Backbone:
């Protein structure tokens, strides 16, 4: 049989498959519905999960530079045992040593991150949502590629003199000053009044307005007015362009070990975390979640596949006479098998297409209502269609084999 004849038979079988679907609309519709539900749930969940992963990755990678953070613990690797709780805090002196002795680092800043409930900011009768107030240095602006919308960042002189100045994130600026210039106004943070010297531009992040609920003040001011014992002290640093991250890490570890007076046989009592480590952590989390979601969604596909097998077995019984006539006029066993396998594949493939469209529509709907991002590459769409067809072919093998084994005489006799 040449290729042209083989293609003709496949086209003929496709036509027969479509005619069977039209002839048994209700039965075919129920099978398509079962497959579509499985594919839709899988596509919807995978779309949301991929969207979350891409958005988190984009947020972490938003800085144009490679960023290192020196902190007490590495939350991305392993747990925290009792001995780690007694580690010394990262200090301002550590930040200064890294700034002076690490040529691979471009910007180095000391940061105090609050660990308790965030406060609200007040301006006259107006009150903001809860805002994370961070104590830091002016060059943090460059490390995280933050853009100012109004005013300026506080200066090194204001840092030195513990000035009560603040740069507002976009959310508190919008809450407190929706229709006026905030520069020069005073807001109350805790028990103190702070003069607004600048505001940050809006950022498109995964957390929406929640990601804008922050304000920055000089760390010296923070330590004098707001510091609590449980607050985290870290050093943030950007790696100079062209310097390998491992070289920068080794340099930081060497300086920190000298600063912490660690002996050669002692483990590090600090952690150096890179933005790459955060991305790897996200991938480790989303990977198993995707597998679990896929396994749950596959149950619906399995049910749909069983329905396909049942329908095809009924179809074989109903069309015994047709099978007998086709074999009597020269159809081979392989031709009969192909006929029923193609029918099963068309049935589930159509269900897969319906499921993909439904799943993507549901994902976009959830995204518009909740703000959760949704994303799906063409590769996943193609894989979903192929998998749907494969389900039909797999569960259609037994009915197709049973049909191909029928003998022409007995099949025609069965019809009579």
Residues:
């Amino acid at each position: 049989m040449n290729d042209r004849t083989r293609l003709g038979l496949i086209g003929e079988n496709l036509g027969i498959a479509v005619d069977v679907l039209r002839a048994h609309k209700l039965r075919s519709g129920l099978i398509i519905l079962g497959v579509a539900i499985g594919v839709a749930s899988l596509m919807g969940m995978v779309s949301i999960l991929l969207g979350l992963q891409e958005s988190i990755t984009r947020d972490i990678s938003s800085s144009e530079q490679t960023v290192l953070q020196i902190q007490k613990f590495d939350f991305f690797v392993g747990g925290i045992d009792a001995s780690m709780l007694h580690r010394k805090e990262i200090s301002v002196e550590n930040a200064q040593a890294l700034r002076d002795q690490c040529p691979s680092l471009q910007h180095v800043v000391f940061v105090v991150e609050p660990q308790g409930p965030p406060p609200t900011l007040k301006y006259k009768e107006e009150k903001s949502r809860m805002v994370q107030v961070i104590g830091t240095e002016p060059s943090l602006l460059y490390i995280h590629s933050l853009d100012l919308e109004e005013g300026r960042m506080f200066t090194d002189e204001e840092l030195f003199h513990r000035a009560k100045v603040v740069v507002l994130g976009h959310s508190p600026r919008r809450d407190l000053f929706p229709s006026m210039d905030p520069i020069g106004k005073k807001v109350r943070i805790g028990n103190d009044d702070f003069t607004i010297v600048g505001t940050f531009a809006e950022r498109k992040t995964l957390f929406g307005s929640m990601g804008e609920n922050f304000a920055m003040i000089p760390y010296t001011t923070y330590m004098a007015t707001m510091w609590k014992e449980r607050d985290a002290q870290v050093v943030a640093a950007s790696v100079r362009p062209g310097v390998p991250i491992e070289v920068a890490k080794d340099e930081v570890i060497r300086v920190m070990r000298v600063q912490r007076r660690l002996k050669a046989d002692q483990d590090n009592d600090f952690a150096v975390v890179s933005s790459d480590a955060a991305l790897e952590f996200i991938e480790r989390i989303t990977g198993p979640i995707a597998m679990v979601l896929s396994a749950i969604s596959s149950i619906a596909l399995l049910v749909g596949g069983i329905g396909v097998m049942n329908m095809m077995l009924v179809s074989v019984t109903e069309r015994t006479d047709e099978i007998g006539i086709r074999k009597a006029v020269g159809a081979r066993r392989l031709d009969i098998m192909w006929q029923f396998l193609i029918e099963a594949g068309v049935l589930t493939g159509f269900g897969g297409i319906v499921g993909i469209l439904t799943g993507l529509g549901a994902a976009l709907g959830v995204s518009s209502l909740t703000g959760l991002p949704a994303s799906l590459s063409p590769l996943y769409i193609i894989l979903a269609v192929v998998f749907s067809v494969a389900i039909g072919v797999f569960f259609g093998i037994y009915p197709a084999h049973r049909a191909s084994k029928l003998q022409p005489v007995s099949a025609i006799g069965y019809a009579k």
User: Anything to note?
Assistant: DSSP finds 13 helices and twelve strands in the chain. The chain has two domains: 3-59+281-415, 67-274. Confidence is low (pLDDT under 50) at residues 206-210. The longest helix spans residues 275-318.
